[in-house]
Specification:
single chain, 205 residues, alpha/beta, Spore Coat Polysaccharide Biosynthesis Protein SpsA, Chain A, 7-stranded mixed sheet
Length: 205
């Protein structure tokens, strides 16, 4: 059976002082904003293979350059719905599943997430209702779903090292099987910055 799978990138618009706040003490507001833009542009350049549609969900209006890049690369630009992170993810998943058989939700904080990783997620969704891409910090960098339940998103301690474990516990409560992909790292703290240079992303400290 062939599934139609839509890709949903949730991101914060690069606005100085509002993005990558944990990195501002090291990079400054402008430097942290530049890093957010670089990571977002990198995510937008992921290949579109395997996806029926690709959506960029931003929390604020994009500037002209970002809007043009998203359009040129075939992304549909949408404003994020209201609510905390969990509620926004739930709503986006519900909207995506109204038009496709499965959804894959990612952020822009994980530069190690590549086309091969996305392909593994899509392949897993053919066999399992849920696929998770674990992050080294205890969260996850990817969530793939063929069905939605509010339990996966409600009252979740986002940004902590308990998110992945709690999500897996809740999947067990729902009696939903899931597949775990290899663990990746994301960029959130100063100690994450040296890894970026190995990927060719310059950081001005």
């Amino acid at each position: 059976m062939s599934l139609s799978i839509s890709l949903h990138l949730l991101a914060r618009s690069p606005v100085p002082g509002r993005v990558k706040t944990r990195l501002i003490p090291v990079l400054g507001e402008e430097g942290a904003c530049d890093l957010q833009r670089a990571l977002l542009e990198r995510a937008l350049q992921l290949p579109d293979s395997g996806f029926s549609q690709r959506f960029l969900w931003l929390d604020d209006s994009p500037d002209a350059g970002l809007q043009a890049l998203a359009g040129d690369l075939g992304w549909t630009l949408v404003e994020q719905p209201a609510g905390d992170l969990g509620e926004r993810m739930r709503r986006i998943a519900v909207l995506g599943l109204a038009e496709s058989d499965a959804v894959v939700l990612i952020g822009n904080d994980c530069p190690a997430l590549d086309s091969e990783y996305l392909g593994s997620a899509c392949a897993a969704l053919h066999d399992q209702p849920v696929v998770l891409g674990p992050a080294e910090d205890g969260g996850y960098v990817l969530l793939g779903l063929r069905r939605v339940d509010p339990l996966l998103f409600h009252a979740m301690p986002w940004g902590t090292d308990r998110v992945l474990a709690m999500t897996r516990d809740r999947l067990q409560q729902l009696d939903w099987d899931h597949r775990l992909l290899p663990t990746l790292w994301d960029v959130d703290r100063p100690e994450d910055l040296p890894r970026l240079e190995a990927l060719g992303i310059q950081v001005m400290v």
